[in-house]
Amino acid sequence: MFADLLRHRDFRWLTAGRSVSLIGNAMAPFAVAFAVLDLTGSPADIGVVVAARSVANVAVLLAGGVLADRLPRALVLQGSSLGAGIFQALMAFAVLTGWASVPLLIALSVANGALAAVFRPASSALTPQTVPADSLRAANTVTRMTQNFAMILGGSVGAGLVAVIGPGWCIAVDALSFVVAALCFTRLRVPDPVREPSHALADLREGWTEFTGRTWVWVIVVQFLFINAINAGGLMVLGPAIADATFGRTGWGLALAAETVGAVAGGLLAARWMPRRALAYGVTLVFAEAVPLVVLAVAPGTVAMVLALTLTGFTMEQAGIAWDVSLQERVPADRLARVYAYDAVGSFVAIPLGTAVAAPAAALFGTRPTLLVGATITVLATAGALTSRSVRTVTTGGPNPRESRSGTHRMQVSGRSEIQGSFLPETAFRCVCKRDSRGLVVGVSRGGWG
To answer: Which portions of the sequence form the region Disordered (predicted)?
Structure first.
């Protein structure tokens, strides 16, 4: 699987750039948190700086999706990565020279959150343009696995650098990682769908039409609006507190590490096998998200939490791959970034609410009832998603072309000529360009824009 994918030049450089960027992203929270503590000593100030980045990220996601569908996606990745490197370098300079302040760190965090929102849809939508259609599932598996490893490595490196050389220099290394990522993205040579000039608001409406026109898309986004909020409150807020009072911080760390091990195993399985109705299978696996909440509520302990989070990692990785492949196979390439943007906004918008209400709810009603209610909501949201016939009948793999919600699409072949045609529902074209990794130009074959 890995060797076959690495034969595709564009996928190699995209994976390298994303991995370096994610390592930097994982380093940043440690460095920024300790930079704020060194500056003011206030945990509340850390929360404000982190929240500023999150709010900016959600606020700009839709605009990021429009940009990723209007401009060459490789260029969007280059620009957003270089911009992030510049702003992180400014933050490092401010911390190292002693003129940093909380308002300045907030402003720079807002800028970086906005650039991350531009980066995300373009990065997600670019994957199917770097590999043939029959390698899409394997490509998404490798992408998610490398992202997991990059986040683990980045967190470890960030913690070590903060301890050894201080937060300012750690942020400087983070800035350098973004520059390296931008250089990787300059090596991409992917053809982009050619789009007619249009207004940004019209693009947002078109993306909304693509998003709402597929019932299975918005149903699952609504499902994860609830699940992400519940998990954010239950596992990110209440989980550490329960662990601290019962089985200890070391046990909690082992449990979180076990989730990553489970995710690797789930990704390896998904790369080799996935049912034809992968989306329904993936949604069914999401029932497992309730298990860690129940364990924390009823019998918190190291062994139980290790088993529960291993199961969660194993199942959620398969669900995530099924989701990505379903979107990439069935949404037209020139609108995919906007659909990813609406997905991200809907899925993440309630996370701050979940983190904000978890502790007050536990104080008011008790920790155990709060967690059990969260597990119940997770089960109900997942069962509700499975009642949708649209969710149950989506298929992946094989001759499963992209759906189109409107008439004419234009695509660029080898950077010069264009092919124009009307797409019927469930129909798309794939242009095989002259590349060492793709073979000679042989015309136009049916499939996905790969």
So the answer is: 392-412
Q: Which residue in this structure is represented by tokens 């990110």?
A: 236
Tell me the per-residue pLDDT of 3-36, one tens digit each, with 9 for 90 and over. 677 788 888 999 999 899 888 887 887 788 788 8
Q: Stretch 378-394: mean pLDDT, rounded?
A: 95
Pairing label, strands 417-422, 429-431: unpaired
For 210-393, CATH gives 1.20.1250.20
Q: Contacts for 70-74 with beta carbons within 8 Å, 24 or more apart?
A: 70/195, 70/198, 70/200, 70/203, 72/192, 73/122, 73/125, 73/126, 73/129, 73/190, 73/192, 73/337, 74/126, 74/185, 74/186, 74/188, 74/189, 74/190
Q: What is the pLDDT of residue 283?
A: 95
Neighbours of 425 (CB within 10 A): 9
- The answer to whether 155 and 27 are in contact (CB under 8 A) is yes
Number of CB atoms found within 10 A of residue 233's CB: 26
Same-fold call for 2-131+151-192 versus 210-393: yes
Give the pairing type, strands 408-413 and 444-446. Answer: unpaired
Instruction: Give the Cα separation of 299 and 311 in Å (integer).
Output: 16
Q: Which residue has the higher pLDDT, 384 or 441?
A: 384
Q: Are strands 444-446 and 429-431 parallel, antiparallel or unpaired?
A: antiparallel
Calculate the CA 87 to chain-centre distance.
22
Q: Where are the domains of the chain?
A: 2-131+151-192, 210-393, 408-446
Is the model more confident about 146 or about 89? 89
Residue 232 CB-density burial (10 A; 0-12 exposed, 13-18 middle, 19+ buried): buried
Q: How is residue 438 written in tokens?
A: 């793709």
Helix (H, G, I), strand (E, B) or coil at 57: helix
Residues 6+ apart with CB under 8 A from 281: 274, 275, 318, 322
CB-side neighbour CA atoms (13 Å) of 1: 16
Residue the block writes with tokens 């298990």: 291
| Entry pTM | 0.68
Yes or no: say if 212 and 342 are a contact pair by the CB < 8 Å rule: no
Q: What CATH number has the domain spanning 2-131+151-192?
A: 1.20.1250.20
